[in-house]
TrEMBL record, chains A, B:
SUPFAM superfamilies on file: PLP-dependent transferases
The entry's keywords: Decarboxylase, Lyase, Pyridoxal phosphate
Modified residues (N6-(pyridoxal phosphate)lysine): 314
Matching Gene3D superfamilies: Aspartate Aminotransferase, domain 1 (3.90.1150.10), dopa decarboxylase, N-terminal domain (1.20.1340.10), Type I PLP-dependent aspartate aminotransferase-like (Major domain) (3.40.640.10)
Lyase among keywords: yes
PANTHER family the record matches: GROUP II PYRIDOXAL-5-PHOSPHATE DECARBOXYLASE (PTHR11999), TRYPTOPHAN DECARBOXYLASE 1 (PTHR11999:SF157)
Name of this chain's protein: Tryptophan decarboxylase
PROSITE patterns: DDC_GAD_HDC_YDC
Lineage: Eukaryota, Viridiplantae, Streptophyta, Embryophyta, Tracheophyta
Tree of life domain: Eukaryota
Pfam families: Pyridoxal_deC (PF00282)
Organism: Eucalyptus globulus (Tasmanian blue gum)
One GO MF term attached to the UniProt entry: carboxy-lyase activity
Length: 503, 503
């Protein structure tokens, strides 16, 4: 009575979690979702709606009386779906993919089911301990040194995003500097990234109170394949030190957002270690590939870093909000982030024998996040996950081959993983760079407007570049081939209209 | 082949999201979860395991080959369950509850299903627009002024936690101050809360670079029922101004963590407005009750605040990671938090006609978070949600009546919502306050050790207090009665052993 879908608002009998009603409706939702997965290929990848479309479909206020699930699902189909950009579409090649899997979905269901709040060990011992186990498992898969593992002297934690991983490690580094040279030194602390470091780096540094004038964005170029040059880094650091500033933190990237470039960790570690800086490695995208021996060299030097973050939601099938962060010295995180209110005090915390993850993150509350990753690792095993990475890389190689075989196109940056950066190159001499950029922009707009493929762009080295990121979970070779054919079709039409610009 | 549970690692045929396999296994998981909900009442509420218990149960490394779902579920039963503190148990009265519902679970399934990343409007128009609609719906339910609504001049966003809500508004306030008086003023900025403000406030202020000496924790007392005194606040602010400091931000709370006290928003707004401070209202717990007219007065004065946060996961049945934040001036958030990397640029963002939620939060990526709340509001309707609040308050009133009817106990702070703060009061004169605290601590330990109930404690006004927080979704009157009987049984035995301390 009065529960979900009954159409009755009698609160005396309102049961928001009746197990049998849950069972029936959750089964209904499972079928809805399985059908979505089956049909997702048929939807326009990039939504074609106009801003404000949804407000016009929905009432201004929440209903006073309950509405049945069937009406809601009808609205999901008619109002929500048209406004979706389908990240699960096998023809989604934009940004980096957000990968998914049955195992992770089941793990998320379990996490939702328990809804435990693991701020302290005691509040949910299994949640804390499984996260510790899983972080060590993944560390082993990546052949990280024991200095990053609970089985050694470090440890790991699941954050929601790379931004949070950077924020908490930056604050740990900052407070370590305060301990050494006083809190009044804040104004002097300098942080370093490249112009390819994720945009959240600058934002996060500002959040942490780093003076905007002290955030260095070191230029990269075609010459270094858009990787951070340790030579330039050293020069900038030396100049800062000479000016009386204090180098604090450097963020190296394994798989940049624009081109998936990899910064040379070993050489950057030389500079970082020499100047006592915290070295963080943001391997959000590229790190996952390092579970395969043939890619592991991209993390060479990691044993000299202070922290590493990697987002399995990008390439390890784990759904969103799963960014794994390892630190060498958990104590530095805890010193910066711990709180000790009376209402959370308990015996095990007091004994110092447990991890209280609230002291490893920004917030206090936290879900049982490790279940998803645990289910992925167990259900698929390392072998399948390696195979999954390799399959995406192979498909990207196929696409790269297509690009290279068509002389109207060029590959703009070396392909290290499953991202191909390319563009149309007008061959006529009198076509200026602005015109070439405009042509690529037009091609991209046309391709995306068909709804059959979604790609995005970037600008590197002053050049407008198309990004083709393989890796959506449902993508097969035929989707890559179809996307290439569509791109070629667009180029045909574009170049014909441009009076046969290519010779 | 090679997919979940097949026991085969042949990657050529590895399909991590086969719709029919998903369907079968997700149905299996639904039944597993429905059975858990049916049985949760029978489990010990507070886990009885010892630190490190899980590491001993699980292998050191992830498996190389896949394992079947049945084995994993068996381990959930035998390894994970014993380490759970069951937040869903109807006899969970600790902290504040983390409420759940069938509707929210279904919404979370849909959110997981789409796995869209709504950093910009274009990346997922429906995700952005539904969040805008739902935030306005909830604003109307709370009778917030239009200055907090998209339908007016403000707007709302779903954060994961109160910590993030405080962080982003604090940084917006800080950067607004930088604009007015220069970035070098950071050292002078002062923030204000009470000694009952959530512990995350201090942590968040430190994250944002506020000097620890400039974080004011104004003492409260029995006299003000542990609410922040605006008289004291004004005195402290005046002294800071006289000392050349700059008042920046004050955090008022509607429903403090220890006793659910409510700070007087109107009077605090007088001080905040006079000194140009940002006023944030943390209504994480108490705010939900304000959808009922009889509680709405606790938000009186909200029209003069700059921001308000409220966590429906605490009392509106929405599962974790759902903290609603409204701001009066979204532009101030966006100025502090926006990033504009080339790879996220797009027409709608450039046109300024859309909301890009990445500029309202710490991270870049974000899930389709509003689906959960949308399903809760529609499936239950305002009437049932009001009924749900009232039912919890009524049960807490019942418990309070039990306490008051037993002269060995006293209620320590006024009960405004569904939290009862109480303790055993030894009547014999020669029992000192330390001894009384020890007695209450013993009683709590005994009650929790039975596994039949889980409560927590706090210390306010120098006194050790037991907290009985009604509100777990499955709690019924009989669980409250049983909990009281258990507490009485504990007191009987405790007081008998203490040689009949009570007269």
């Amino acid at each position: 009575m009065g529960s979900l879908g009954s159409g009755c608002g009698n609160s005396r009998h309102f049961k928001p979690l009746d197990p049998e009603e849950f069972r029936a409706q959750a089964h209904q939702m499972v079928d809805f979702i399985a059908d979505y997965y089956k049909q997702v290929e048929t939807y326009p990848v990039l939504s074609q709606v106009q801003p404000g479309y949804l407000r016009a479909c929905l009432p201004e206020s929440a209903p006073y009386r309950p509405e049945p699930l069937d009406s809601i699902l009808m609205d999901v189909r008619s109002c929500i779906m048209p406004g979706m950009t389908h990240w699960l579409s096998p023809s989604f090649f934009a940004f980096f993919p957000a990968t998914v899997s049955t195992a992770a979905f089941l793990g998320e269901m379990l996490c939702t089911c328990f809804n435990s709040v693991g701020f302290t060990w005691l509040a949910s011992p299994a949640a804390t301990e499984l996260e510790m186990v899983v972080m060590d498992w993944l560390a082993r898969m990546l052949k990280l040194p024991k200095s990053f593992m609970f089985a050694g002297t470090g440890g790991g934690v699941i954050q929601n995003t790379t931004s949070e991983s950077i924020l908490v490690t930056l604050v740990a580094a900052r407070d370590r500097a305060f301990d050494a040279i006083g809190i009044e030194s804040l104004r002097k602390l300098v942080v370093y990234g490249s112009d390819q470091t994720h945009s959240t780096f600058t934002k996060t540094c500002k959040l942490a109170g780093i003076h905007p004038c002290n955030i260095r964005s070191i230029p990269t170029s075609f010459h270094t394949h858009f990787a951070l040059s340790h030579v330039l880094l050293r020069k900038v650091v030396e100049a800062d030190v000479a000016a009386g500033l204090v180098p604090l933190y450097v963020c190296a990237t394994a798989g940049t957002t624009s081109t998936a470039a990899v910064d040379p960790i070993e050489q950057i570690a030389d500079v970082a270690n020499e100047y006592g800086m915290w070295l963080h490695v943001d391997a959000a995208y590229g790190g996952s590939a390092c579970i395969c021996p043939e890619f592991r060299h991209y993390l060479n030097g990691i044993e000299r870093a202070d922290s590493l973050s990697l987002s399995p939601h990008k390439w390890l099938l784990s759904y969103l909000d799963c960014c794994c962060l390892w630190v060498k010295e958990p104590g530095s995180l805890v010193r910066a982030l711990s709180t000790d209110p009376e209402y959370l005090r308990n015996g095990p915390s007091r004994s110092g024998s447990v991890v209280d993850y609230k002291d490893w993150q920004v917030g206090t509350g936290r879900r049982f996040k490790s279940l998803r990753l645990w289910l992925v690792l167990r259900s698929y095993g390392v072998a399948n996950l390696q195979g999954h990475i390799r399959s995406d890389v192979r498909m990207a190689g196929l696409f790269e081959g297509f690009v290279k075989s068509d002389r109207r196109f060029e590959v703009v940056a070396p392909r290290l993983f499953a991202l191909v950066c390319f563009r149309v190159v007008p061959r006529r001499r009198r076509v200026g760079p602005g015109e070439a950029d405009a042509m690529n922009r037009k091609l991209l707009e046309w391709v995306n407007s068909t709804g059959r493929v979604y790609m995005t762009h970037t600008v590197v080295g002053g050049v407008y570049v198309l990004r083709f990121a393989v890796g959506a979970t449902l993508t097969e070779e035929r989707h890559v081939v179809a996307a290439w054919n569509l791109i070629r079709e667009g180029a045909d039409s574009l170049l014909k209209n441009a009076h046969s610009l290519c010779t």
